[in-house]
Amino acid sequence: MFLGSPGLLAFAALSKTSDRSQTLQQTAQLIDNIANQQVQSNVAASTAIIAGLVLEKELINRLLRRDIMRESVIYQEMQAEAEAEAEARGIQREQQLILRLLTRRLGNLTPELTEEVQRLPVEQLEALGEALLDFSKPEELVAWLEQYD
User: How far apart are CA 100 and CA 39, in angstroms?
Assistant: First the structure.
């Protein structure tokens, strides 16, 4: 039943079947035959996501063409979210490093100074990473922050 309609192909791997990998292979062949490229990419991405509930990633990647999935708006949105999360984690790690270096160089910072450093955009945070090498007292950090305020 699931293999008879493009809208249901994504659910075929979840159906009662004796061989889920064979069902996914049949599904992949049917997806390859979908003429509309956008529909094909969306069905492939949806199938990969849903098949991931019951099958191994390696099998899914082997049977479903990733190049088709990349064109899916679903895949692109997930990719954009993952990139945004990775960027946010990178910025957070950079902030933590700068704060540790400042603490080592100047001693414990006030909560206000810590918050001010955490609010800096990436470009200014990177500039602070270089400038902090010249600081010897907290007042120099305060002066540096004031010029970017």
Answer: 50
Report the candidate in 75, 61, 70 with the shortest Cα–Cα distance to residue 24: 61
Q: Are 63 and 24 in contact (CB under 8 A)?
A: yes
Amino acid at site 114: T
Cβ atoms within 10 Å, residue 129: 14
66-118 pLDDT, tens digit per residue, is: 777 778 887 889 899 999 999 999 999 999 999 999 999 999 999 999 999 99
Give this prediction's pTM. Answer: 0.58
Domain limits, the chain: 2-71, 82-147
DSSP 70: T
Q: How far apart are CA 139 and CA 142, in angstroms?
A: 5
Tallying the residues shown for the chain, one arrives at 149
Distance between CA atoms of residues 35 and 98, nearest Å: 53
Q: Chain-centre distance of CA 13, in angstroms?
A: 26
What CA–CA distance (Å, rounded) separates 147 from 128? 12
